[in-house]
Design a protein that fits this description.
Pfam families: Rdx (PF10262). This protein is an alpha+beta fold and 122 residues long. The protein is built from four helices and four strands; from the N terminus they run E-H-E-E-E-H-H-H.
Length: 122
């Protein structure tokens, strides 16, 4: 297996397939050949995690977990985490150094209006 790599684990029952594919596309577009692999993995009910692997001997680095971090990441914030924690390089994604205004795509007001739990998996 080639490294570094990113795995996106997502719930298919929650219909997060397209969201996961969008994150995959964003990571590939930004980091191009700096990442050896970006994969989509159908996961457990209600699961959405982005995991990073530096090499074959390293443990998975949790870059984002929907249940812990709350919702889904802003793509720029996710890219910053990949750059800082997995790539450890200042040569790729230089535009990511600018400050991120929000870590999530969903605001607190949005969460108050709707349930944060998945209806299909709850």
């Amino acid at each position: 297996m080639a490294y570094p790599k990113i795995s996106i684990r997502f719930c298919t029952r929650c219909k997060w397939n397209l969201r996961s594919a969008w994150y995959l596309q964003e990571l590939l577009q930004t980091f191009q050949d700096a990442l050896a692999e970006v994969s989509l993995i159908p996961g457990e009910a209600g699961e959405f995690q982005v995991l990073g692997y530096i090499d074959a001997n390293s443990a998975a680095i949790v870059l984002w977990d929907r249940k812990i971090d709350g919702g889904f990441p802003d793509s720029k914030f996710l890219k910053q985490r990949v750059k800082e924690r997995v790539l450890e390089s200042s040569e790729v994604g230089a535009h990511l150094a600018r400050e991120v205004k929000s870590t999530t795509l969903v605001t607190e007001e949005d969460e108050k209006e709707g349930s944060s739990e998945c209806h299909d998996c709850a």
